[in-house]
Amino acid sequence: MMAQDLYYLMLVLFSTGVISVFFTGNSRKITNYFAHSMALMGCALGILCAIFVFIQGKASIVLPVVLPFGSVTANIDYLSAFFLALVGMVGMATSIYAYGYTQEYYQCRLPAMAGLYNAFLLSMVLVLTVSHVVAFIIAWEVMSVVSFFLVNHEHDKKVNTRSAYIYLVMTHIGTVFIIIAFLLLAIGSSSMDFSQLQGNLVSATWRNVIFICAVIGFGTKAGMVPVHIWLPRAHPAAPSHISALMSAVMLKTAIYGMCRFFLEFLGIGPLWWGIVILVLGIITAVIGVLYAFIEHDLKRLLAYSSIENMGIILLGIGAGMVFMSNQQLGLAGVAFSAALYHVFNHALFKSLAFMGAGAVLKVTHTKNIEQLGGLIKKMPYTAVCCLISSVAIASLPPLNGFISEWLTFQSLLFLPQALAGITGKVFSAILIALLGLTGALAAACFVEAFGITFLAKPRSKQAAEAVEAAPSMLLGMGLVAILCVVSGVFPKVMLTIVSQTLMGFSNVSVGGLVSDDWYAIGFTAGQNSGDFSAAATLLLLASGLVLAWLLYIAFGRGKVAVGETWTCGIVPNSHMEYTATGFSKSIRMVFKSIVHSHYETLVNANDYKYHGQKLFYHVRIQYLFVSRFYGPLKNSIIQGAGFMKSIQTGSVQLYVGYIMVVTVVILIWSIGW
Amino acid sequence: MGELLCLALLVPILTGLLSMFQTTTFGMKLINIIGSGLTSGTLVGIIYKIIVAGAVQYKMLYVDQLSAVLLIVVAVLTFTSSLFSVSYMEKELAHGHITFKMLRRYYGLLNLFFFTMISVVVVENLGLMWVAVEATTLASALLVAFYFNHSALEAAWKYVMVCTVGICLALLGTIFLYYAQVNAAGPHFQALSWLALKESSPRFDPAIVKLSFIFILIGYGTKAGLAPMHTWLPDAHSQAPSPVSGLLSGALLSCAIYGIVRNLIIVQAVVNQEFLQYLLIGFGMFSIVIALPFVLVQHDVKRLLAYSSVEHMGIIMLGFGVGTSAGVYGALLHIINHGIAKSALFYMAGIITQKYQTRQIARIRGLISITPLLGSMFIITILAITGTPPFGIFISKFMIVGAVFASGRVMLGACMLLLLAGIFAGMLYYCLGMTFGSKPKHPVTPLTIGKPAMLAMMVSVVLIVITGVYIPAWLNEILYQASSIVVGGS
Amino acid sequence: MVKGGIEVMVSIVQALGVAFVAPLIAGVIKTIKARLQNRRGPRILQVYFDLRKLLTKDSVVSPTVSWIFNVAPYVYFASSVAAAGMLPIFFFSGEKTGDLFTLIYVLALGRFFLVLASLDGGSAFGGMGGAREMFIAILVEPALLLSMLIVAFKAQTANLGLMASHALSSSFSVTYIFGMIAFFIVLLAETGRIPVDNPDTHLELTMIHEGMTLEYSGKKLALIFWGAAVKQLIMMLLFVLLFLPGNAFGSATFIWTIVKVLLVAVGIALAETSTNKMRLFKVPKFLAVSGLLSLLALVSQ
Amino acid sequence: MNVVTILLLFTALLLTRVSGLRTAVYIILVQSFMTALACAAVGIETGEGHMYVAACLTAIIKVWLIPYALLNIVDKLQNVREDHPILSVNYSAVGACIAIVLSYALIDQALPGAGSRDALASAITMTLIGLLLIMTRRQALMQIIGLITMENGIYLVGLSVTKGLPLIIELGIFFDVLVAVVVLVILTYRLKLSGMSTDTSMLKKLKG
């Protein structure tokens, strides 16, 4: 079969990429181009492999690993192939982008970065394909560790190391729960091969335990609130193409895991599973986007927006599970395809956004949007890419973000059929309303991000001296941008792939997902149906534009004079521009309880009172979960440890006493046996 | 075969004696590298013999697959530690921390230490095993006290006192076992011969055997650093010269565990299985629990590693305590992995302390920017020791956890995993602090890492990485056989 | 000719129709309002003349702005017109295109660009207006969805056509009262009317929509005004079609629709004259009322 | 036999009361001598040759070599006494009595009918008293003495339950005991040399 060979070749290429850096160390240029070309080709092969799988059906490969757990196979079914293709797509873009971007790092441990980059891709590919518990966990942890090193790459700054540390510890704890879930399954079905794992063999209570462990474990990786705190720290710390990869693909491996568990291993569960996921999802979405909105660090903002999008994906999954447990397989299909479609979309536009942010960062060396501005004139192509990503993230038609948002809305709309009664109706109504709120907030957030970063006058010297990004970077971004537009305008294609991905699972039916005409998507599940014609919407928009244009020319083309912006007669300068802080102020005030600002102060930087004032406005947000939960937890643990340490007093007499005591205790205890 | 065994015992003694009479550092180095090479070579030969021919008895000596597992550890560590000692001690000499006379003493004692450890593994008689274990204490005591400064003496004193008390209890236990044997067997029997005990064990009086095992467990457990008898361990490990710390942690603790296991095999024939499992699991779990706070709040890098040893001994005990073949397999594999990884870590810690002239974690900064190779090896090994894939320790840890789950003790397994995660957090926190961050303010002694030392560490790291993805068939065979010896019946 | 092409054609025609009627309705509201304030007020067709005047005028553009500034008005206008095409005024239209969520997000597209343009000018007023516009939009979105869900849940579809027909077939109930009030509040907020925003003011501190368009002049300004008018009519039509449906209130003939629209215009005028503009941070509470009412309506179904 | 064991018990009890190091060493000497006698007695009982060897070994190592080493160190550290033990002499005497009770309880509970009851009991008591000394005495030397007492006790347990271990093991044990004491003596001597007191309760630098 073709797929196997491609798969092997891909692994080999990535490995060569890893090893190559040890030999091309002396010339940074060669290292850069060779390693990233390896990654590029590997990703291309990944896509090919996925395509072959979609054409020829699932492929299975035995991996050359000798461990006392039986043979380790890699089973590429449709689900794996879908995510594999995702890695391929984003990976290709970032690899091309890396050619230009990593020139920043010629003096800063480039070989390590390039090697780890390949290792990262390799581990992700393995996570998505291996079908053996131990192999999965190994790949999973390797992925975490490698990404940890990448996050920590610029360890000259202390904060990066700290972020990396928090990231690794959080994900490690998450892995503990994943291990528990897997082991419980494995014991229940007395096998460690994915094909044998079946939740039905486990008692109901244990199934619930497995479910909870899986949610916590994968949720940690997915940046689900309240175990999300690592994400906004780790993503900004990493180099931008890595951040793109992490945010676009690595988070999705968690979704992959959830799909495996909820669709395949655990089987159909009780209703409350789905509801739990729904609640977590909506909380994640709202909190994420709120924090994103009030953030000034461009990459942190994107990271928080990733949290929001994971929330939306979770909504899809949760709705699907509710429908599943209610035996409405058609609607479950719709919901899950909404989730998967959003996985795809988020991978595209978030990687695009991070690459754009990276381009900005590279030329201006600042991530603080308050110091940017006016970049649209300096770097027009980057601006276009970022605009596309912003519109897509704000899930506005006609770009791809809207399609999955629409599907999610649809699946939530039919939720009352599964959740009977007033409560169900109100619950789903609130879910939809909050999802709407999320959408609006996302729009506002990215208006702010794009507007402050790219529009108006430059707010700082480095922003004024910015230049367009390197061509390879533009190419990388451009590819993704085009994909964004295409998958928004022809949603049918992607939806077909998604539905085929879900075809493998017996608990969902995607029969109703196919719409007969090429320009529209739609679904029918039972008597429910919904459809959206991208072409028609486009036509309407186009007609509107035409009308506008006609009006414009109808009355003769008037002269266009140039006049300064109206600022009440003063010569405008960048200090008069509206800031991101100001833009989000009103929201900060309305959602005080969540985004409670630690302090807002007006500092006069001018020492001499009478020499006029030089005012600076500081805001610091108090992060709810950190200040209320994680901080106290940490302190109490440290205190407890300090207390426990008092047993090691250093007195030898006491030590001998311990032995005495333990002997006596055990002797007494042993009498009973 | 018998010759090989004798040779293995003889070579270290000779090396020791020879190095006592050396007059040049070079000769000293040469003698020891050759000697340790020979020793390891012989041990490897023995292991090979065991693989092909199975268990062998020769007069008072007896080796089977179970001993082979320990022999692997001892072989590797003998070699690496004396390789490392060569350059480490050279540096100490250069720094003027020690005199040439002390160097002689060091190598003499080191080889004696090798000898005692090997003899623990190869003797057939449980009484002699006790003697050997006690001998390891005495041989290593003077190594712990090597520098004869205040804290070294203190550590040594506690080490000897606590361990000897423990070992006395083990003797008591052994005597009770002998008593059981006397009662059970007729007039003619080999006293305390392990094989004899094994075949006649079903006829023993359970009450006495139980009593004896309690004492033996506590006694050897003291030596193995099981909480709460672990109190000597951090002091000794932190004060001994780094190669010795590596040996203590990697090999000596394992030897003590081996002593427990040998007795366990006898005991479990008559004593209530559940009782034994509770006992072992209890000690194991308690060790992990006790280790956690000391790892979370720690200021001394070598103490940090020492407490991690306590934790790992706990894991190993859990593996044996579960009692299933998978668990024992995992535990034995863990002995090997831990031995190699932890010794490597102690070597690195040794170099770090030489570089920074301090063991205070807070004063060690930016290792990776000073020596990138060492720094990366350090962080990799730390990741390995905390049970992160794709390193060997993860495999054995996972097997043990899996066995715990499989034996139906789900809560126990979950708690264990969480505790290990906590220890991971602690270790990594300090590791990152040392490895990364800005260069230290106070000057760092410019010293190059000696080639032998580098070789020693490299070998260990490579081994760790390999065992993570590839367990050779012969090793698998040995472990499988050994576990079936422990579990009983094959 | 693709399948479903007819509907698309019809909805385009309808969109253009609505677009051309919209200024008239705006004029009507102005007049009624003037009458209520005992003024004669401008002619009903005045809005058309204003637009014509603006379209013929030259425009002044700040050197600060980028192409976003120039594109925004077109997108805004186009999005409003496109949204107009999705309304189920004639029941066979809107089958393929009309979708609750699509409608809302298409309108959001226009807003997105307009706010960007407002930031593009680089003046504080623009930013302020944009920020406030977004602020209100954020609050309106859930309220709007909730109020529309009243019908959507009953009809178990998001398709406006089906929703409208379902509403038509269903008889009058208390749900409608709640729904009507809820949606009316949203309507006022969404179309930038008193008490949320004052379309006539140009006082920097109070203006929202006007603040965004401060930099605009000439043809572009005309497009924006027109787009706003279309959007307003869309909201009114939605109100009519979903909350004043046929057999509950009169019949569903085209005439009736127009009559109802005029009624809504009167309602708006009344609301504007009877209340005064509230502080910005009162708006959330105002909209919360709408949300609560919608939930009540859901419960009372 | 019983007389010997009672005497041994007496020496052990005496040890809890002494505060002079030299006296303690002499008591240990006597105690070891008694042990040797007991060993010989067992030899006479069973008529096993190697018991005599064991007895001689005990005599040589425990009665001659070890006390010799101890007395050396005692000379080295002038006028050091165990004046303020952690547990005062009276309390430790009480402790010793409790130890006796405990040991009887233990043998009745765990090893009924193993050897002669009193002998075994006194042996275990000696072990416990040895532990007690280690736990409650500050002076390094006193701890060593406690250790030896414990050693003797265990050896007596061996004697009384199994009539002695096989010779080779005995040899090993003796050797170990000797070396252990020597090592400890060296350490004590070094402590003295490096200008620190031999008060082990001062050794608290390493903690945490």
Structure description:
Chain A is mainly alpha-helical and 673 residues long. Chain A is built from 24 helices and 7 strands. A two-stranded antiparallel ribbon of chain A has the order 1-2. Chain A has a two-stranded antiparallel ribbon with strand order 3-4. In chain A, strands 6-7 form a two-stranded antiparallel ribbon. In chain A, strand 3 and strand 4 form a beta hairpin. The longest helix of chain A has 36 residues, at 329-364. Chain B is mainly alpha-helical. In chain B, 79% of the residues lie in helices and 1% in strands. Chain B contains 19 helices and 2 strands. In chain B, strands 1-2 form a two-stranded antiparallel sheet. The model of chain B has no long low-confidence stretch (mean pLDDT 91). Chain C has one domain. Chain C contains 11 helices and 1 strand; from the N terminus they run H-H-E-H-H-H-H-H-H-H-H-H. In chain C, helix 1 packs across helix 9 (218-243), helix 2 packs antiparallel against helix 9 and helix 4 packs antiparallel against helix 5 (124-155). Chain C is globular, with a radius of gyration of 19 Å. The mean pLDDT of chain C is 87. The chains are: A mainly alpha (673), B mainly alpha (490), C mainly alpha (301), D mainly alpha (208). Strand 5 of chain A pairs parallel with strand 1 (59-61) of chain C.
